[in-house]
From TrEMBL:
Keyword Secreted assigned: no
Protein name (Swiss-Prot/TrEMBL): glycogen phosphorylase
Cofactor(s) listed: pyridoxal 5'-phosphate
Organism: Streptomyces alanosinicus
Catalytic activity: [(1->4)-alpha-D-glucosyl](n) + phosphate = [(1->4)-alpha-D-glucosyl](n-1) + alpha-D-glucose 1-phosphate
């Protein structure tokens, strides 16, 4: 019989056990081993049945057991110690509190998904896991962050397989009352609510749920409330589902509603109002519009309000391809803004101009969320050095006249939250080596370039640890594989072979991620005979564990999954290669530590960062990857292998896959398996163990989310907070008026004449050449601009590479035509083909960079030809 109504019945804890409720409601338990151990000891069987979720276990444990624990003095001592530790964690000073004055009093961090724990399934893949790790690391460091997202009633889909290996999607209903959440409430106890205006006089209402992530509050907006009609109730139904209007409403709720939720939270709790707003990908871009509307309501005009909002906004892009960005038809966006809908005080045309692709190569009828994010943020970044470069090229159209290298998009390479992803056995080994406090500090704050203490761990201990983790993975895989085959319709009598799947002494390769085509799930199947030889080698076999989900609308991705599953179903190799459905955080935490090699073979440069290999590395797993994302930045032969790429412009895609697959097989056959299986005098794989040691020593400190968040604070949050404070109402008006004046006058700005003291086409290293430049500024003054000499080596097309920029200084008053002369030295500090040019940029104390306005004046061809010669 099916229930017609559902209730959540909460346990009444005996008074001595009341701290258990606080411990369960703070998600620090998801990365704090002592807290998890405490809950497991409440009832080990219930803990396993509750899938390691403290909130669920407290709802299942028998009252008699609670009464027993309330009288158990040993348990109560443990409870007190863990509760005191949490209190110290929440209230004590941490890294952030030890920094100099001037730090942001608060930062709001917006993301469409957050991967905190499997017990709160509000994530689909890397973007969400990164956002969750960002919050956890901010908590560990004491950064005053407020997270903002949506609460999806179905989360992301659960994946199973049909008998023939086709992906099946299931969307379980999540009850917020059974999740580690509390409702944000007004002082009178009523639920805190917010609303957005919709066309036709309708409204979208939402309530606010609070997840406490250590020290960081995470606000999640939920539209499934009685005040909404059925359509509006479904706005937060599932992650990345629905059509264009559904997605637009989600993103309006996240951005506009999210700012209102932050304001409500700060009003109710006294939390400082954020000075910095960080947009994690374009989905939350509308937050800037809401903040502009706030300032307009306080008396600012739109343009000054835009400048003020930009100063305090950071935008992070995560996609290396335009297809990965949300884009909406302009008419759809126009319908949801203006007098008859949301933000009636802002002209619709102003809204549209922020997101329209009005640049060469853009589609003028499309509203681009990433473009809006960049136009609303004074600071932007990609998520690895290579991705920063790709992003500068991809968005260069927004800054016409500038080389891609000067597009104002920097990079902060992603990191991962070590306490979440490092196996307890690895943590215990580190704590034995350097002590618990130093081990925790090394994993959270980071800062050390090397973890030298790893060098003191005996080879035998490292190898025993690696075998233990591999053995645990074998057992986990068999259990999950058996469950998967039952879901596919197999009976127990058919599954005896599963007891022989994988071997704890065989080289184990892991591959797990989302399944878009560019990640090439099936590259390993390119030459199946050769792969079978590797899997079944009599002396040096390999085994492969694969997991991944295709987007529900991506049939090509589902076909890749099916192709891999069918290969793994082959009785000849099914003991050596497995596909595990329903990849998520709980599986990943078992998978990374148990693998010896982590495989990543995307089409370069389409992997923005790719953090799964980082998590594997922190457990002593070696990376085997294409030089893309973070691996391109930090790869060394000391601790991993690079798969050569055939990414020349003229390479046929099929041929490229053939070449790169062959390179992968060669590495496995000739370098990786021999190193794993060769034994030294003590019967240990000495060279392999040394690579594990180097992975931990050299890569460990770099891949930490603590390092990442410290970079965000120092390089982006602090400058954004300073800009926010500097852009008072008067300063914002001044900047807006200056930009308008400069844009209007810029057509008259010119480089009229360039001359040098160089008399020949060659010069000696160390020579200084004098430059003299005559410029026209029209109605602008020297205070409005900077005249620069740009010099460096030149390529065959006379393009300057590795440029050095030197400002030139005005020499004397304007001539009779109003022209000014600028002079300066040009130091020839590099040998070989060398060249220079001159340009004029706008200059103002409140700009983050000279490229910010997107204006530049260069010499005309005639002027350039008369400027002397390139020095070769």
């Amino acid at each position: 019989m099916k229930a017609i109504r559902r209730f959540t019945v909460r346990p009444v804890l005996p008074e001595p056990l009341r701290p258990l409720s606080d411990l369960a409601r703070n998600l620090r338990w998801s990365w704090h081993a002592e807290t998890r151990d405490l809950f497991q000891s409440v009832d080990p069987e219930a803990w396993a049945a509750a899938e390691s979720d403290p909130v669920r276990i407290l709802g299942r444990v028998r009252p008699a057991r609670l009464a027993e624990l309330a009288g158990d003095r040993r348990f109560l001592r443990r409870l007190t110690a863990v509760a005191d530790d949490l209190d110290d964690y929440l209230t004590g000073d941490r890294w952030y509190q030890a920094q100099a004055d001037g730090m942001p009093v608060a930062v709001a961090y917006f993301s469409p998904e957050f991967g905190i724990t499997a017990a709160l399934p509000q994530y689909s893949g890397g973007l969400g896991i990164l956002a969750g790790d960002h919050l956890k690391a901010a908590s560990d460091l004491g950064v005053p962050l407020i997270g903002v997202g949506l609460l999806y009633r179905h989360g992301y889909f659960r994946q199973t397989l049909s008998r023939d290996g086709w992906q099946q999607e299931h969307y379980p209903v999540l009850d917020p009352n059974e999740l580690p959440l509390t409702q944000l409430k007004e002082a009178d106890g009523a639920p805190a609510r917010l609303s957005l205006a919709l066309p036709g006089g309708r409204a979208l209402h939402a309530r606010i749920w609070l997840a406490q992530v250590g020290r960081v509050p995470l606000l999640l907006l939920d539209s499934d409330v009685e005040e909404n009609d059925l359509g509006e109730r479904g706005v937060t139904d599932r992650l990345y589902g629905g059509g264009s209007e559904h997605r637009l409403l989600q993103e309006m709720l996240l951005g506009i509603g999210g700012v209102r939720a932050v304001r409500t939270y700060c009003r109710l709790t006294g939390h400082p109002r954020p000075e910095v707003f960080h947009t994690n990908e374009g989905h939350a871009g509308f937050l800037g519009l809401e903040r502009i509307a706030e300032l307009c309501a306080d008396g600012l005009d739109f343009d000054p309000a835009l400048q003020a909002v930009r100063g305090g906004t950071v935008f992070t892009t995560h996609t290396p391809v335009p297809a990965g960005i949300d884009r909406f038809d302009r008419e759809l966006v126009a319908r949801h803004f203006g007098a008859d809908a949301e933000l009636p005080g802002i002209e619709v045309d102003r809204v549209l101009r922020l997101g329209m692709e009005t640049y060469p190569g853009g589609e003028p009828n499309l509203f681009n969320m990433a473009v809006m994010g960049l136009r609303l943020a004074q600071r932007a970044n990609g998520v690895s050095l290579l991705h920063g470069q790709v992003s500068r090229e991809m968005f260069a159209g927004l800054w016409p006249g500038f080389d891609a290298e000067e597009v104002p998009i920097t990079s902060v390479t992603n990191g991962v939250h070590a306490p979440t992803w490092v196996a307890p056995e690895v943590l215990r080994l580190g704590a034995r080596q350097v002590g618990p406090a130093r081990a925790e500090d090394a994993l959270t704050v980071g800062g050390s370039e090397r973890w030298d203490s790893v060098a003191e761990i005996a080879d035998q201990e490292i190898w025993e640890l690696r075998r233990t983790l591999r053995e645990q993975l074998v057992l986990e895989v068999r259990e999950r594989l058996r469950a998967s085959w039952r879901q596919r319709g197999a009976g127990n009598a058919e599954l005896g072979w599963i007891e022989g799947v994988l071997d704890a002494d065989v080289l184990t390769i892991g591959f797990a991620r989302r399944v878009p085509s560019y990640k090439r799930l099936t590259l390993m199947l390119r030459d199946r005979d050769r792969l079978m030889e590797l899997l079944l080698h009599p002396e040096r076999p390999i085994q492969i564990v694969v997991a991944g989900k295709a987007h529900p609308a991506d049939d090509s991705g589902k076909r890749l999954v099916q192709e891999l599953v069918r290969f793994a179903d082959d009785p000849r190799v099914r003991h050596r290669v497995v596909f595990l459905p329903d990849y998520g955080m709980a599986m990943a935490q078992k998978l990374y530590p148990g693998c010896d090699v982590w495989l990543n073979n995307p089409l370069r440069p389409l992997e923005a960062c790719g953090t799964s290999g980082m998590k594997a590395a922190l457990n002593g797993c070696l990376n085997l990857s294409v030089l893309d994302g973070w691996w391109n930045e930090w790869f060394q032969p000391d601790f991993g292998w690079a798969i050569p790429t055939a990414d020349g412009a003229g390479t046929d895609p099929d041929r490229r896959d053939d070449i790169e697959a062959a390179a992968l097989y060669d590495l496995l056959e000739q370098r990786i398996t021999p190193r794993f299986y060769e034994r030294g005098r003590a019967g240990l794989p000495d060279r392999w163990i040394q690579m594990v040691r180097q992975t931990l020593t050299l890569l460990g400190p770099k891949v930490l989310a603590g390092r990442m968040v410290r970079e965000y604070v120092e390089r982006l949050y602090v400058p954004a907070a300073q800009a926010h404070r500097a852009l008072t109402a008067d300063a914002a008006r001044e900047l807006a008026e200056w930009k308008a004046r400069v844009r209007a006058a810029w057509p008259q700005v010119s480089v009229d004449h360039v001359e040098t003291t160089a008399t020949t086409a060659t010069a000696e290293l160390g020579t200084t050449v004098g430059l003299r430049v005559r410029v026209g500024l029209g109605e602008l003054t020297p205070d409005d601009v900077e005249v620069q000499a740009v010099s460096g080596r030149v390529d065959a097309a006379d393009r300057i590479t590795d440029a050095t920029v030197v400002p030139l200084k005005p020499a004397g008053a304007p001539d009779l035509e109003g022209r000014l002369v600028y002079e300066g030295p040009l130091a020839l500090d590099r040998t070989g083909p060398y060249g220079y040019t001159v340009r004029i940029l706008p200059a103002h104390r409140l700009l983050a960079s000279g490229a910010e306005p997107g204006l530049v004046a260069m010499p005309s061809q005639d002027v350039a030809e008369g400027a002397g010669v390139l020095l070769r």
